[in-house]
Amino acid sequence: MGARAGRAHRARRGGRGHGDGFRWTFAPMVDIARDARWGRGLEGAGEDVLLSKQFAAARVRGFQGSDLSRPDAMLATPKHFAAYGAAEGGLDYSVSDISERTLREVYLPPFRAAVDTGALSVMSAFNEIGGVPSTANRDLLTGVLRDEWKFKGFVVSDYTADEELVEHGYAANAREAAKMAFMAGTDVSMQSGLYMRYLPDLVASGEVPMARLDEAVRRVLHVKQKLGLFDDPMRGLDGPPAAQRAENPAFIALARESARRSIVMLKNDRMLLPLPKAGTKIALIGPFAEGTVDLMGAWSLFPGQSAPVGIDQGLRAALGADSSVTVVRGSGIGAPLAGGIDAAVAAAREADVVVLAIGESEKMSGEARSRSDIGLPQAQQDLAEAVAATGKPVVVLLSNGRAMALKGAVRNARAILVTWFLGVQTGNAIADVVFGDFNPSGRLPVSFPQTAGQVPYYYAHKRTGRPSPEGAPGTSFKTRYLDATNEALYPFGYGIGYAPVRYDSVELSQDRMAMSDTLRVRATVTNTGQREAEEVVQLYAAERAASVTRPVRELKDFRKVTIAPGASTVVEFTLTKDDLQFVGRDMKPTVEPGEFDLWVAPSAADGIRKRFVLVRD
Q: pLDDT per residue over 309-338, tens digit each?
């Protein structure tokens, strides 16, 4: 259909597009990320399976809506199928050497959630599993995706992933790579051109059956029909320009709200924060203290018309004309600046409080940005130590795309805010939290290790036959480090706000639960502070003994509740046998009777513990 007919069709429908004509997006990234060295963790939802499943489903709904033919709908593409985040050493594109049980129990569920929500394209991964690259893995692309999950869409390779079968040592040449990928179930080749070059001859020679070619074409045409592209191929191109839409006040307000809700407060000793707006001399120090670069994060290809709001701009706007903010970079991101530390120390001595803006640049997290050391670059650590030596209270604003190993003056700072990459409203969102106009409510989707040597680190780890006793780190011949405890510095789910919250009690509807029953869990949570609190109440469970060893605890549900000052609220959860499933010895989902521990908690390392027994009907 031509452009004129497309415009006529839109007029008949009575609607206008609100997009740029993009009908297909290579998102969401739903890989589980349990190794902070891997740079692409920032694209996903972190280390937890349940949380990643919920984000996968929510993002597919957000992209596709209820009707793919709408002008503002985009085809979602969950990626990277599969276990791309399990790369050895956290090294991008590397081998994922994991068991089938780990694959099915940890890495596949977010993809299943995305497919069950309606995603109609899936991207294959660069990695290999068990000696078979994912783009040519028929067991994954056909066996799991189509035969087990009944996926009706198409599979697209990642960028030249089919061609890379040769570099993997799996295909002898490009022609064989095209055949292997196509026959495994990769319907569309991205970028390499191998399908255009070799498929005609492969089909003509009979090496690729015509039926397989028809199948792949039919899948792509089916999705195009769902998108309405045969009726209106130009849909979505008649709205206002992207730069103009980016200035929509509603979008700007949403960006600010999203950014400030993403900030996680890890520490606030002696209630240093929020800072008073009047009469406080602030030294804003660090490589991210001013400027508008390194605020958007990886894949920020189309930032819009206006530059992001820098941290210095946000603080000064919040304080008004009489603001007292001295800005000194102090160091570069990865290298010292001549005279930088001296200038920073001088500014700190003249200030009442130091706000230290440090962390990672946009180029330090993302694809192909693995780091063997997940601490701060030495130049920034030196800056932090020098500023802390002045004795002035320090608020750390940590810019990062991964969990980081904090040490020295950064770890010991009076207050620490994890700000990630907050986007166009970075400065305003940070100011909202620093000055108390917004009470931080974010929680960590990844565990922060004590040292880089602990990674890969995740809370839902397995038990061992020689667990390290609590409170006895020096016990010999146990699962422990010689130079650190096994715990996280800040665990998954952790975060604090300006109103302390106390977990008072947990009650179970029964202590023996039949397979057909529903267990109700009621927890009382109290705001002991002077302002309204938003608390993320988390439910964890663990089976004490099973036919397959189980994690020490797993997230089963969570609720965000608002609690008035001095008030208590009751949070209720429900558990059924489906919530207690795991992958059994036969690689099938199973539920086994047994004794369970249950926690209602503010993080994966805390909470009130209860016990119940699951019995057969």
A: 999 999 999 999 878 999 999 999 999 999
